[in-house]
Design brief:
about 180 residues; Lysozyme-like; 5-stranded mixed sheet; binds zinc ion
Length: about 180
């Protein structure tokens, strides 16, 4: 066994997504994919499940929910079952991970994607569903940038343009959760 194999074996034993049951999620972590808005769920799943170093070597998609453009419509698709710990945010893998396809972070050569009203609508409805079923307060819908990336460094995720509308998203979720119908 070479040094690299040994290293891989160690990584395999500590991978963060052992099929641990998740009984009471602490909140929701919002991510962006950093890809095109129509990147298929299967593409992200393949990357997460491919062995390291090409992929992440996880047992399933790291996120519990994945929103993307399918044809002309935004669609929320189930990823990792909600009753299993995620693999999306160090320290917050016991929270539900929701990833929105797109790259919402402006850079010097690119203003980044803007969240569309249609996407926000689908996201709000999915967040209402999650918060209602798990009795999560909308205040606990947090951006990934709260916790940092894998390895502990800072992250731009879910991007400035998406984070900027998070207060409005939380407010819409609150209003819808408060309705009895
Ligand atoms: Zn993220």
């Amino acid at each position: 066994m070479g040094a690299m194999d040994k290293f891989s074996a160690v990584i395999a034993t500590i991978r963060p997504d052992e099929p641990t049951p998740l009984e009471r999620p602490g909140g929701v972590v919002l991510h962006h994919s950093g890809t095109r808005k129509d990147a298929p769920l299967q593409a992200i799943r393949s990357y997460h499940m491919a062995p390291r170093p090409e992929g992440k070597g996880w047992t399933e998609l790291g996120y519990h929910w994945y929103l993307s453009l399918v044809g002309e419509s935004w669609v929320a698709q189930a990823g990792r079952p909600e009753n299993r710990r995620g693999a999306h945010a160090p320290g917050r893998n016991s929270w539900i991970g929701v990833c929105v396809a797109g790259d919402y972070h402006p850079r010097s050569d690119n203003p980044g994607d803007e969240p569309s009203p249609e996407m926000i609508d689908v996201l709000v409805n999915k967040l209402v569903d999650i918060c209602r079923r798990h009795r999560i307060s909308p205040a606990l819908i947090r951006p990934h940038s709260d916790t940092g990336c894998e390895g502990g460094g800072p992250t731009d995720c879910p991007g400035h343009n998406l984070e900027a509308v998070l207060p409005e998203i939380r407010e819409q979720v609150s209003i819808l959760l408060g309705r009895k119908d």
